[in-house]
Structures are given as C-alpha cells and as structure tokens.
C-alpha cells in the first residue's frame, strides 16, 4: 500500500483525521489558528507537526509551504470556517472568513499536491467572493484557479447519513486530482439503509438531567431515580453524565413527545421566560429528535435545549398527577452520545483539561470522521491502482 502524506488546513482538533492513519494516510503537518485547539490536536496526534498561527500572514503561509515540501505532502485537506456561510450563521457574503479559501488556494498552488479535499457547508457552493474586481461563486473561483491542473469531482454535496453516520449532516466536498495522475476521485457508493438514532443510542438506559438553577433536592424530587440512573450512565462512560438545564426548560421538555417541539404543548408546558411570558422561537427549537431517523445535524450549540433539534427523543413513561403525558430524558445529548452520532470512537482520547463547552463546540464544528474515512478510502484505491 502506498502511503500518502497529508497537510490539514483549518484543522480544528483533528476530528476529520480520526481514522486516516489506519487506512494509509499520514497527516504529517497541520495548521490551526486557535491555541487551545492546537493543544487538543497535539494531545491526539503527537506525531504530527502543528503550525499554530494565522494562515493569512505571510510568515505562517511560507512556513506551511516550506514544511509541506519538506514532508512531501501529496494531499491537502482544507476546511475553512463556515460561520459566514452556514444557515445557522449570518450568511454574510462580506464575512472575511469566506475569503480564507483564497489563502488555502495560494498554498495549494505553491505545493502542487496530487490530491485536494476541500470541505464546507453546502452554502459554500452559492457563496460569492470578490475575485479580479467581480463577484464569483467559490466553485467557479476554484475552477479558475485550479481547473487547468486538476480534475474535479462532479457532484459536490453529500449527506453523512448516506455513508453510515447516524446523523443527517450535509457537506459540500470538492475533490481534485492533479491531471498528470490521470485519475478521477469520486464519492463512494451510498449505503442502502441509513442508521437511525435508535440504532445508535437506543440501547442506552434513561438518564435524567440535573436541575441547575434550584437546589439538588429538587432534582431528586422530580427524578427519584436520578442517582441510580447517573451511576448506570457513568458505568458506561465518564462522558455519559447528566446534562444540566434550568427547571423551566426541563418542565417543558418532560411534557414534550418524541419528535415534537415544546411550542406545540398546551400553554402550561410551553417554553417560558423567567417572568412567565412565552419564549418565541422556531419550530426546530425546544424540539425532541426522532428515534426512527438519523440524528439532526450536531451544531456548536448542542448543549442548549433552546437551540436547533438538540433534545433527546425520550420515551413515554406515564402521566403526571394531572393526567398529562410524561417523557423521559428531558435533556440534550451527552458528550458520549454525541461521540456516537458523530461517528467518533466512544473511547476518543479527550484531554482531561478540556471543558464540556469546548468539547461540545469542537464536535459540533467537526465533519463526521467516518464520512472522511470512506471518501479517503476511495483515494487510497485509486492511488494504489
């Protein structure tokens, strides 16, 4: 098997790289601007040299190019930040982060790798940047800059759920092969049946949340089995511990059926502010997921009940004293459950210093590594032909 040396740009903590070493891709060099992410990356991949710094500065860019040539990099992976394009962002075409792709292209043109993997949200395909004093969409820009020397794949949008990831997550992935290689790189064949959230985490027992804004005695009053359920969960993984939420949110969600939003509850159980007035929001917020579908896209805000499609599906557990239906697990997914639905290993080597907020954020920003592995396996196949 011919090993491929790779450079990872905008590397986050290296989620995309999780399974690459096992299939013959050595990520020998990475770049990330955030020092805390670099520290996490170094913890996961001590064998990889990480350049910490801003890719838009000449000294960092030159160092990346120089060391890429030193390490004989044949594959460049680039995942520029998507906040300027994403539907959960402001979708501002003037967001400077949209132009980071240009700096990646400068590095690519200097290195001239055999293979290129550029990944982002699907909105990237319709995002325009200013190039030679006119607006062009990013795919057009890439073809102008790289099309003479590289063959592109034809269909850019993939859904991770079509490749065995129990999460609906659409990504725009542009694959390129240098023309002198005389090969084409395309996505692998889709699986026949997507994995549902039940397939992924349906075997896990009930886990109650902890009420964060009231004394612990209120948690035990509302959830008499709290301590036992917590103990059972921690026996599975130290990352499977009860999420903390305020009482008002838990009170709404415990009365919310699987697959439904708390906004459809009777008034008593609709989301409320501290002054008792109703919360306003979209129908995909304060919403439980469904057991019979893949998980919804995991976002950076996955710790929040009031964000998009974050709440555990729950199970019917009976009625309250007034005859209203009750559902278990009125909480967001635990970190352990996020690992599963993101196709990360359940024993992922998370550093002990990382906070819950930080861990959830980097998982929400990362591309499911099983999807990357399957796409890269296609590259390995053509490279070995």
Low-confidence stretches: 82-92
CATH domain fold name of the largest domain: Rossmann fold
Name the CATH superfamily assignment of the largest domain. Vaccinia Virus protein VP39
Instruction: Estimate percent helicity.
Output: 25-40%
The quaternary organization reads as single chain
Distance between the termini: 10 Å
Average pLDDT figure:
94
Q: Tell me the name of the CATH class of the largest domain.
A: Alpha Beta
Radius of gyration: 23 Å
**How many β-strands, per DSSP?**
14
Task: Characterize the structure shown.
The protein is built from 12 helices and 14 strands. With about 375 residues, the protein is α/β, with parallel strands linked by helices. It folds into 2 domains: about 200 residues, Vaccinia Virus protein VP39 (Rossmann fold, 3-Layer(aba) Sandwich); about 130 residues, no CATH class. The strands form 4 sheets. Strands 1, 2, 3, 4, 5, 8, 9 and 10 form an 8-stranded mixed beta sheet that branches. A two-stranded antiparallel sheet has the order 6-7. The radius of gyration is 23 Å and the shape is elongated. The chain starts with a strand and ends with a helix. About 5% of the residues have low confidence.
């Amino acid at each position: 098997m011919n090993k491929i040396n790779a450079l990872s740009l905008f590397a986050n903590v290296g989620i995309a790289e999780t399974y690459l070493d096992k299939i013959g891709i050595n990520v020998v060099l990475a770049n990330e601007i955030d020092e805390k992410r670099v520290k996490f990356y170094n913890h996961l991949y001590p064998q990889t040299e990480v350049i910490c710094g801003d890719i838009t500065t000449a000294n960092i860019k030159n160092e990346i190019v120089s060391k890429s040539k030193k390490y004989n990099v044949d594959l460049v992976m680039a995942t520029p930040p998507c906040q300027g394009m994403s539907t959960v962002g402001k979708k501002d075409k003037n967001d400077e982060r949209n132009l980071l792709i240009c700096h990646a292209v400068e590095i690519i043109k200097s290195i001239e790798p055999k293979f290129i993997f550029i990944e982002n949200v699907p909105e990237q395909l319709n995002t325009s940047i200013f190039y030679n004093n006119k607006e062009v969409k990013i795919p057009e820009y890439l073809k102008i800059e790289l099309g003479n020397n590289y063959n592109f794949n034809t269909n850019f949008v993939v859904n991770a759920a079509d490749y065995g990831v129990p999460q609906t997550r659409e990504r725009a992935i542009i694959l390129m092969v240098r023309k002198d290689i005389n090969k084409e790189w395309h996505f692998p064949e889709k699986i026949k049946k997507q994995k549902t959230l039940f397939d992924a985490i349906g075997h896990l027992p009930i886990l109650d949340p902890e009420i964060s804004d009231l004394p612990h005695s209120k948690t035990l009053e509302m959830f008499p089995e709290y301590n036992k359920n917590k103990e059972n969960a921690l026996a599975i993984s130290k990352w499977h511990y009860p999420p903390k939420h305020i009482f008002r949110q838990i009170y709404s969600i415990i009365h919310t059926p699987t697959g439904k939003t708390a906004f459809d509850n009777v008034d008593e159980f609709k989301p409320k502010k501290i002054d008792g007035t109703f919360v306003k929001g979209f129908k995909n917020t304060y919403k439980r997921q469904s057991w019979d579908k893949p998980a919804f896209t995991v976002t950076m805000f996955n710790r929040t009940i009031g964000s998009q499609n974050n709440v555990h599906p729950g199970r019917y557990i009976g009625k309250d004293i007034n005859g209203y239906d009750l559902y278990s697990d009125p909480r967001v997914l635990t970190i352990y459950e996020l690992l599963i639905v993101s196709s990360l290993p359940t024993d992922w080597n998370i550093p002990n210093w990382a906070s819950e907020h930080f861990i959830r954020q980097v998982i929400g920003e990362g591309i499911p590594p099983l999807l990357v592995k399957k796409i890269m396996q296609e590259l390995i196949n053509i490279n070995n032909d």
